[in-house]
Amino acid sequence: RRGASLADFAEKIGVDPASLVQVLFHLGEMVTANQSINDETLQLLGAELNYDIQVVSPEDEERELLERFDLEFGENEGDEDDLMPRPAVVTVMGHVDHGKTRLLDALRHSNVQAKEAGGITQTIGAYQVETEVDDEDRTITFIDTPGHEAFTAMRARGAKSTDIAVLVVAADDGAMPQTIEALNHATAADVPVVVAVNKVDKPTADPAKVRGQLTEYGLVPEEYGGDTMFVDVSATKGEGLDELLEAIVLTADAALELQANPEMDAQGVAIEAHLDKGRGPVATVLVQRGTLHVGDSIVAGPAHGRVRALINDVGESVEAAEPSMPVQVLGLTSVPGAGDAFMVVPDDRTARQIADQREARKRAAAQAAGARRKTLDQLFEQ
Ligand code: GTP
Ligand code: MG
């Protein structure tokens, strides 16, 4: 197991830790009993003592942990007969200040069924928009991401939990570093891209140039014979919004079969989480399968709890959240990390046990990192 010490290993194979220290010493490795050992040292020791060492990856470890409780994440969609169409999850990405948030605002206000702005919670970065394509009501889930270079990890996570990426490029600025970085994340995650060429109202806007630039990166516009939809929009003037929504729906219908089982216990991912003064830990989660209910016992990364309240994207308290719905969860005992998976488990006790195990693992990993640092420090002191 990652982060295990030499003493842990000695205990596992039933020998005196001191003897292992000696063996390693003769192999030219200075390791104390309480020090965590790295994979190579472990392999070395294994070879010397004729043990077959298998290093367990964090993913395997996590799978094994859930298996102990007869649970699994993601693999099982439950009864096929229960599968229902679900809204597309669309992540809005692009370079800083190219108008991602403004565009989302515009899309929400153009929404005929939108509730009044008064109760809108601005901290939640995920929203649902309703639109009509070919006389059919369609819901789309949008996740906003920051364009600042510091948020690479967030864009990578966003690309992973999404069905479609909308790449926002300001027509006056053109493709910039985070435009390309976002595009790379989407490509790596095998997510189809729709390009929103924004700020076309500006006198210096050059939408054709944006098309040319992105063509060089493999995003060839349909009008040039490629298969990527480019839509000219102005978030401030509210232009091109219906066309953008239509392009998203068409992309979803052409490339993806979006279904989920609303009947099973909910699973999904935490998009954002923070500690609120009055409400305690608040996590915005995206339900990916199943239905999340008030009263459910959940575990989210190393956090756990019982769902006390669910708040939707317009600040209303709701009883349940269905697949593709973003919702704020109240009732966790600590703050999960953004990107942590969450799942409903049978009871509070199970939730606590799983969370405790993850917390212990996290602590061990941090300790191991600390121990490594410490030995380095000692080295430099000499
Ligand atoms: P980050 O979240 O920091 O990455 O930025 P963002 O991409 O969300 O940009 P944001 O929506 O905050 O917009 C940045 C600026 O561009 C704001 O001043 C907007 O008013 C302006 N802006 C956005 N869309 C348009 C547009 O269509 N036309 C014009 N003229 N200005 C726009
Ligand atoms: Mg923004």
Automatic annotation (TrEMBL):
It is found in: Cytoplasm. It comes from the Bacteria. GTP binds at residues 94-101, 144-148, 198-201. Residues 85-257 form the Tr-type G domain. One of the essential components for the initiation of protein synthesis. Protects formylmethionyl-tRNA from spontaneous hydrolysis and promotes its binding to the 30S ribosomal subunits. Also involved in the hydrolysis of GTP during the formation of the 70S ribosomal complex. Belongs to the TRAFAC class translation factor GTPase superfamily. Classic translation factor GTPase family. IF-2 subfamily. This is Translation initiation factor IF-2. The lineage of its organism: Bacteria, Bacillati, Actinomycetota, Actinomycetes, Propionibacteriales. The chain holds residues 386 to 767 of 976 of the full protein.
